[in-house]
Amino acid sequence: MNVADLLRVRPGSPVDLRSIDASGTPGLEGPREQEKAAAATLHQQNCDAMQSLQYLLWAERRQALLVVLQGMDTAGKDGTIRNVYGVLNPQGVRVTAFTQPTERELAHDFLWRVHRATPAHGQIVIFNRSHYEDVTVVRVQNLAPKEVWSKRYEHINAFERLLVDSGTSIIKIFLHIDRDEQKQRIESRLSDPTKSWKFAASDISERKHWDDYTDAYNDAISKCSTAHAPWFVVPANRKWYRNWAISTITRHTLEKMNPRTPAAKFEAGSIKVD
Ligand code: AMP
Ligand code: MG
Questions:
Q1: How far is the CA of 121 from the centre of ligand 1 (A)?
Q2: How many domains does one find in the chain?
């Protein structure tokens, strides 16, 4: 079975993150060192394939790809963007990071700022955080009442359906680390001077709400993993596994989209170049 099938959350089968091993390596179960080396080679092959497919997507200009990255603090969203999507041609890819909404954004519906950032045909867009913050941090921090955020799952499913019906494929990736791994990563932000710029006081305060975030993500992923816009829960304690799994899922999705170069708008041999 392809790793994309192994990690995809099936619609109607609720996910329980607490029962998924964040150090697991589904699809690569052989001797560790051997699998690690194989993953590096396969990841490189996936990157090459993604580059060729991106070229076709751009040439075709009829479809788009949206990749949503979510995860707890330190889960590896930035590292994923660097190691997986960094290989793409900058001309056809954009990364949008979502932080606390501005006053202007808050004066609109929660999808307003998100919709504007979606990819045009031919493009690949990576969301570093997304509209899923509006049913996770907003819920955990009580930034909106339950009557407001509880309706958002349906809004999200309808919104994503609209994007898919308009030619955009969507993959949503949850980078699944566990609490111990987060502790180590925060500690290395504190002790390694080259990483200290990444540390935010919120890394400590949000960590106290680990259980609430887990509940919020269980609900968001369970309610919004649809046939048209699936969620993938990627065990992400091991970065080599995470990179391979995500490049495989992305390659697989682009292959299914099957972009093709458009037919020439002239007859072969009909135009002479002096
Ligand atoms: P970082 O990704 O570390 O730069 O942090 C961005 C911060 O913005 C995180 O704490 C997010 O939870 C927060 N954030 C992103 N989107 C929203 C939102 N819609 N409402 C409230 N906070 C948000
Ligand atoms: Mg942060």
A1: 27
A2: 1
